[in-house]
Amino acid sequence: MAHMKRYTIPKFWPVSKKENKFIVTPRPGPHPKHRSIPLKIIIRDILKYAENSREVKKILNEGKIMVDKKVRKEPGFPVGLMDVIEIPDTHEHFRVTVNSKGLTLEKISKTEAGVKLCRIQGKTTVKGGLTQLNLHDGRNILTKSKSYKVGDSVLISLPDQKILKHFSLAKGADAMIIAGRNVGVKGKIKDIQERKTMLERSIVTIESKNKEIKTLKDYVMVGKIEVSK
């Protein structure tokens, strides 16, 4: 299990930088280091289900923690935006979302734990004329539709990855800012300024609580998670 120096950890990790010199680092996985939380930190420091590393390892080795419907046993497994954490023994379900500080956990229902909102980071055309959607959590989905664009979002079912709904990054869409100084802001898209040259970056204006906030297009995630109870 790899470690990193505490003073380098993201601000949203709920741990002190003044205790032990080293702390577990997120291993390579579906989310980058600066946008994820190691499973060990979630179990010990956020959910408070363990007091030390030994107890965390015991919980994980017994297969008591699931992420996106899969049992995860690595303390350094990187948990990131919109991931679903489930604890079958306690019938608890959580989704990783964002607030003004960064990543945070939100308690959700069993039904909500069966779906996940994913941002389309890229797309390619593959053999047979199908389109491969590259999502923000590292997964890839094949589709016959050509309507999906980079920056859009899809609501998928877990664990079978069926696309249930498509959200376009367009004016009037529900959106939230997932990175940058305005992280956590939610509202509706008022305007989109596409870049005119390769040196520029596209800007999105979001209207939130009677304020207009401009942010990079890459920092915006559109869509809402709505499921039948």
Give your account of this protein's structure.
Helix content is 7%, strand content 40%. The chain has two helices and 19 strands. It is globular and about 55 Å long. It has helices at residues 39-46, 53-61; strands spanning 3-5, 22-24, 36-38, 66-67, 70-71, 78-80, 84-87, 92-99, 102-107, 115-125, 131-135, 140-143, 153-157, 163-167, 174-177, 186-193, 203-208, 211-216, 220-222. It folds into three domains: 3-108, RNA-binding S4 domain (Structural Genomics Hypothetical 15.5 Kd Protein In mrcA-pckA Intergenic Region, Chain A, Roll); 115-167, Ribosomal protein S4, central domain (OB fold (Dihydrolipoamide Acetyltransferase, E2P)); 174-222. The strands form five sheets. The chain has a five-stranded antiparallel beta sheet with strand order 5-4-7-8-9, with no helix packed on it. The protein has 229 residues and is mainly beta.
Features:
229 residues; Structural Genomics Hypothetical 15.5 Kd Protein In mrcA-pckA Intergenic Region, Chain A; OB fold (Dihydrolipoamide Acetyltransferase, E2P); 5-stranded antiparallel β-sheet; 7% helix
CATH class of the largest domain: Alpha Beta
Distance between the termini: 40 Å
Helicity range: under 10%
Q: Give a count of the beta strands, DSSP E runs of length 2 or more.
A: 19
User: CATH topology of the largest domain, what is it called?
Assistant: Structural Genomics Hypothetical 15.5 Kd Protein In mrcA-pckA Intergenic Region, Chain A
CATH-wise, what's the superfamily of the largest domain?
A: RNA-binding S4 domain
Sequence stretches where pLDDT stays below 50 over 5 or more residues: none
Following the backbone from N to C, one meets helices and strands in this order, namely: EEEHHEEEEEEEEEEEEEEEE
Strand content: 35-45%
CATH architecture of the largest domain: Roll
